[in-house]
Amino acid sequence: MAVDSTLSSAVGASVSEKDAKALQLIEEMTKNVDSVQERILGEILSRNADTEYLKRFQLNGATDRDTFKSKVPVVTYEDLQPEIQRIANGDKSPILSSHPISEFLTSSGTSAGERKLMPTIHEELNRRQLLYSLLMPVMNLYVPGLDKGKGLYFLFIKAETKTPGGLLARPVLTSYYKSDHFKSRPYDPFNVYTSPNETILCPDSIQSMYAQMLCGLIMREEVLRVGAVFASGLLKAIRFLQVNWKQFAHDIETGTLNPKVTDPSVRECMSKILKPNPELAAFITKECSEENWECIITRIWPNTKYLDVIVTGAMAQYIPTLEYYSGGLPMACTMYASSECYFGLNLKPMCKPSEVSYTIMPNMAYFEFLPHDDSSAQDSSRDSPPSLVDLADLEVGKEYELIVTTYAGLCRYRVGDILRVTGFHNAAPQFRFIRRKNVLLSIDFDKTDESELQQAIENASVLLKEFNTSVVEYTSYADTKQIPGHYVIYWELFVKDAANAPTDEVLSQCCFQMEESLNVVYRQCRVADSIGPLEIRVVKNGTFEELMDYAISRGASINQYKVPRCVSFTPIMELLDSRVVSKHFSPALPHWTPERRR
Ligand code: AMP
Q1: From the CA of 436, how far away is ligand 1's center (Å)?
Q2: pLDDT tens-digit profile of 254-296?
Q3: Domain GH3 middle spans what residues (predicted)?
């Protein structure tokens, strides 16, 4: 069916009725950004008018933008923590939202070392579902025939906990995969996964990965796209194959499932899929036993048309590795979302990773933008609200910090993402994800900021005291050349008594102490083996002075020079690495349990 849609006409595609509806919705929303935003804010403010939070600002029933902007402050998670804590403790009064808080979504962003808790309400699932429902119609415009096969997606649920008041706290995707929206989704030939629900919903991530990979291998010829949410997840799956291929070949050859997979529902569903197939087992053995794993994805799944993984933001560091394993398959970054709110989608999903822009859907929440300028102080004070710009009024080329007001009761909440406007689709601005504010190091879901790194280094350097040694300078690097990636910390030490210098054992303990000090998401990723042991590289005395000389030779001002606390620029890495005198690794996993410490 042909539709009146700039999207489909742009690529000259004729589309199914279902897709046409989705594309029309995108067109409608993006053409009427401002009026949709006005309506969404009105809806949120009128339904939440009697919440304790909004009453505090005396809107007196007003639902218009001007009143809202003049009376309601821009806030951070820390500002809302008292309210969030009360909800977590069981206060069911309408504090932030008039609709009951159905659960907390645990963000990978942290506050005081713990995951942030984002309140959500039941109907938000519909909004998330709506955004998901737009992805394939857009993809179908660019990649025909996706109904002729399956998607091999590595999807996982994670540990969930309960707050003291009994509300569930779990990651947004765990919430979604466990919902009926996902579990009882109607059959859609464009969205058939190789992984049965039972394998995705298996709480043991190793058994889950094992079963999902096994299904992917068995159905290898049907696979048309391979993906995970983030690039790090897909690379973890490749590494899992590298470690376990002999066992997979054995299972496929004999038609029996590895006894280490003990989950009864996984065993049951796998018994219907797994049949002896010596030919396939021989093929897997041949491909995986080769030293060279270049193009392994296309060798094993030869019909793959694209990888479906987010490689924007912190995940861009994985592009070269993914290119290596996939022989340069396109990488589709389809959507931009968070625990607070799902934001939008990429209307040109087959573009190069460096060109990805997301279009925020104006019906997901009310969005405002704080002009971002690195040189100006960015801490907004409650007394003088910064002037925020509306979605419809943004300027191409400028950078902004994203602020959301959600149905679940976050009002003018700073998400912490910095976005640059790259253009418009109809009246809707499109955004390049630039970076997350204050994040220094990230390998997987972890986000470590400068003060967390500083604190970890202070805690670790206590161990050096008895050796009369101190850390004079440091910097860091997220090393993702190998899977899993790991944090590298460069230390320049001042050793007062060379005869009593800290030993390798002591410095390894420093690595461990740093890991113990890092936030809960880091520690969880370590325990889940998606981050490798932290490494300290001790560099020769004077190395950081050389670093400064180098920066100055490239135009940095002596007065303003600050040691970069994270480096990635190749010449700097080369300089640092050429001055390394010793390397030390964390000898053990840091402490992590699903329970919150507070
Ligand atoms: P979480 O709070 O754990 O759900 O993480 C949400 C954050 O992940 C967002 O605020 C972004 O910083 C990041 N993120 C989500 N989607 C993307 C994307 N498509 N590209 C880059 N970063 C993303």
Answers
A1: 8
A2: 999 999 999 999 999 999 999 999 999 999 999 999 999 999 9
A3: 358-436
| Alpha carbon of 338 to ligand 1 centroid (Å) | 5
Q: How far is the CA of 35 from the centre of ligand 1 (A)?
A: 27
Contact 287, 296 (CB under 8 A): yes
107 touches ligand 1 (CB under 6 Å): yes
The minimum-distance atom of ligand 1 relative to the CA of 118 is 2
CB-based contact 306:225 (threshold 8 Å): yes
**Which contacts qualify for 296-300: CB closer than 8 Å, 24 or more apart?**
296/238, 296/241, 296/325, 297/226, 297/238, 297/325, 297/326, 297/327, 297/329, 298/326, 298/327, 298/329, 300/217, 300/220
> Sign of the C-alpha dihedral, residues 492, 496, 498, 503?
negative
Q: Residue 13 and residue 439: Cα distance in Å, rounded?
A: 41
Q: What φ, ψ does residue 433 adopt, rounded to 5°?
A: -75, 120
Joined together, the tokens standing for residue 365 give: 């929440």
Give me ligand 1 centre to Cα 336, in Å: 6
The encoded tokens of residue 374 equal 């690195």
Strands 331-332, 306-310: pairing kind: parallel
| Rounded CA separation 33/35 (Å) | 6
Does the CB atom of residue 108 touch ligand 1 within 6 A? yes
Residue 376 has pLDDT above 60, yes or no: no
Ligand 1 center–CA 77 separation, angstroms:
16
Find the DSSP H helices in 291-356: 296-300, 319-326
Please state, as a whole number, how many other Cβ atoms lie within 10 Å of the Cβ of residue 67.
16
Q: Of the candidates 156, 169, 113, 168, which has an alpha carbon nearest to the alpha carbon of residue 591?
A: 113
- CA distance linking residue 123 with residue 341, whole number of Å: 12
The atom of ligand 1 lying closest to the CA of 402 is: 10
Q: How many residues does the chain have?
A: 598
Give residue-wise pLDDT tens across range 154-213: 999 998 999 999 999 999 999 999 999 999 999 999 999 999 999 999 999 999 999 999
The C-alpha angle 31, 35, 41, rounded to 5 degrees, equals 130
Ligand 1 centre to CA of 337 (Å) is 6
Q: Which residues contact 442 (CB under 8 A, 6 or more apart)?
A: 314, 436, 448, 478
Query: Helices 570-578 & 543-553, crossing angle to 10 degrees?
Result: 150
Share of the chain above pLDDT 90, in %: 91
Domain regions of the chain by residue span? 17-122+337-374+390-436, 144-304, 440-585
| Mutation choice for ligand 1 from 120, 172, 336, CB with most ligand atoms inside 8 A | 336
Q: Is 301 in the pocket of ligand 1 (CB under 6 A)?
A: no
Beta strand 168-170 with 101-111 is: parallel
- Helix, strand, coil distribution of the chain in percent, nearest 5: 40, 20, 35
Task: Report the distance separating Cα 145 and Cα 444, nearest Å.
Answer: 32
Using CA positions, which residue lies closest to atom 5 of ligand 1?
338
Kindly give the distance from the C-alpha atom of residue 359 to the centroid of ligand 1, in angstroms, as a whole number. 14
Query: To test ligand 1's pocket by mutation, which of 120, 317, 433 has the most ligand atoms within 8 angstroms of CB?
Result: 433
Beta bridge partners of 227: 153, 308
